[in-house]
Amino acid sequence: MNHEVRIVKSQLILLGLVLLLNSSCNKGVNDNENNNIAIGKTYAGGIIFLVDSTKKHGMVCAPTDQDTAIPWSIAGSLASGAMGSDIGMGKINTDIIVAMQGTGHYAARICYDLTLNGYSDWFLPSSDECFNMYFNLKSMRRIGGFADTLYWSSTESAASKAFSQWGHDGYLPEGGYYKTSTYHVRAVRAF
To answer: Are 159 and 93 in a shared domain?
Structure first.
């Protein structure tokens, strides 16, 4: 799927995310603050990488990576069913992964457990959320401090593989990478 189609698709799906998360993610949002909501600005605990047309809802990523060498899974070939790739699926995928794997040191868990800048509802982004984070912050604005390496998404591609996003050119490899491989992680949250 080309970049323009993915962006349009992501923006449409974000509208669904707005309705789903509206009541639970409005911490710190009021009419005066909405005038300053734009991609690349610091807001709601992170850096804005996606905003809906109302400029009241969107997504932010943590200002820095949560880990630079962590596996997606501690169980290797455990199929979790966390296959949602669209905007709004990262939180659902993360919850599924954590419920399946429990405690341990793995990508979804460190996002799930993260408390940062007054917020504790962080999650591992879906593959489309990862793409938008890369495209809107690193590619278009050269901000966010992203490394030129792979970043895990919460989107599983097979029992032993999950999707990751290349930080140097935005390429999302088909088929994914082995879950026991260690890559970077950047948590996100919705507002």
So the answer is: yes
Determine the structural domain holding residue 47 and report its residue range.
3-61
The answer to the question of residue 29 being in a domain is yes
Same domain, 78 and 159: yes
Instruction: Indicate if 109 and 165 belong to the same structural domain.
Output: yes
Q: How many domains does the chain have?
A: 2
pLDDT by 10s per residue, the chain, length 191? 444 444 434 443 443 443 344 434 444 444 345 568 999 999 999 999 999 999 999 999 999 999 999 999 998 778 899 999 999 999 999 999 999 999 999 999 999 999 999 999 999 999 999 999 999 999 889 899 999 999 999 999 999 999 998 766 666 667 788 999 999 999 999 99
Q: Do 105 and 165 reside in the same domain of the chain?
A: yes
Do 82 and 36 sit in the same domain of this protein?
A: no
Q: Tell the residue number behind the tokens 């992170």, with chain if given.
A: 46
